[in-house]
Amino acid sequence: MKPSKGLPSLLAPLLARFRTKKATVGVVGLGYVGLPLTRAFIAAGYSVIGFDTDPTKIEKLRKGQSYLQHLGKSLARDLMKSQRFAPTASPSTLLPCDAICICVPTPLGKHQEPDLSYVENSTRMIAEVLAIRKSLITKKARAASRGLHGFPPTLISLESTTYPGTTREVCLPILEAAGLELGEDFFLCFSPEREDPGRKGMHTKSIPRLVGGIDNASTAAGVALYEQAVERVIPVASAEIAEAAKLLENIYRAVNIALVNELKPVLADMGIDIWQVIDAASTKPFGFQRFEPGPGLGGHCIPIDPYYLSWKAREVGHTTRFIELAGEINHRMPEYVVERTQSALNEDGKAMRGAKVLVLGIAYKPDVDDIRETPAAPIIEQLMERGAHVEYHDPHVATFPSMRKHQIRLASVKLTAASVAGADVVLIVTGHMAIRWAFVGEHARLIVDTRNVMQGIKTKGRVLKA
Predict the structure, then answer these.
(1) Is 101 a residue of the active site?
(2) Catalytic annotation, pick one of 101, 103, 171, 301
(3) 3-state DSSP call for residue 425?
(4) Residue 451: inside a domain, yes or no?
(5) pTM of the predicted model, to two decimals?
(6) CB–CB of 89/60 below 8 Å?
(7) 319: β partners
């Protein structure tokens, strides 16, 4: 890809630093996206400065302690042993970075509107760092040195999922307001993260990477950065295309999950098992892709990202009825699960008030400790509101952490014959492989299964799918 006209002398030294692995990369936000990205950059040979505002994360990393189970217990130790990783909570430490990747949350506000405060604050911090960097070398000296002895422009790459236009309309003005010039002091691109915590056989290096820049030079810089660490990098025509592509990926999943979630109660009332229907339909080798129903959506992407496009669509005079309907269906599933649980108890002659409910699994997906937007939170809250006595067991989540919208003060109980048999109903929310499902079937009197994990398992009591 050709750099923008008039910029090759400033772009060339940056590209050279990426390709020779002499570059230092900053990663802002050391969570579910930032840490895997850091590992990929370290493996590629870059030096990485990891920034996070949470001092606990920085302290743990410096001690070689991992805080995200699905990434492995040795990750932090391996990063620190490399001697090319420096975790920090000090913005000034980012000063020598040739590239800075923004990997911060993009949640929703109270009215389902985008909350870009993390992106905005991170961009302002970076702008202040680059302004200091700029003051260390004059434009004349930079031109004379062709960037080889001074600081070449810094590439800034936004990875946080957001609506089309964020990189150009939000990040760019913040950088320019600090007296920085595109092409002179920085390049700017959007490269969406595509992490899927816990997925086997996929990792940051093997997942294809999209890169869309504010201009051609920014795209070229982004491609040069990522192609050292990722097996396949795909440049696209603009930052807006990359932003919209990430939203389309997640909306596709949200809509199709909503479809099977909508069919689940309909078919249940007809006496038809939705999972057997999906198994049957999946035998078609074309024109059908399998999606699983569940107790609701979880994770940082699928429950949130579609609303980013809906909000932006209204700004330009459009409604996204398909997306909003899918959101309504998926967000209604926790209530459906609670109602099925209450009906199951009623069939056994028990009321919800005072009933002992053992919830199995609170992570939003199997075999991880990730509870972001987990449907277990509204399910447990609704059970408690109806008077149930709730306990949970999750081998990956020892205590229910504080969440933006939920404060549930519970700790995981041991999975014993007494805890299972003593429950009036066992409610399966997450199908962790580490849970002994045959053991559950042996001791439970009543099971409400939202994940179809008890299919084919011998059970002592009654199983109701929800």
Answers:
(1) no
(2) 301
(3) strand
(4) yes
(5) 0.90
(6) no
(7) none
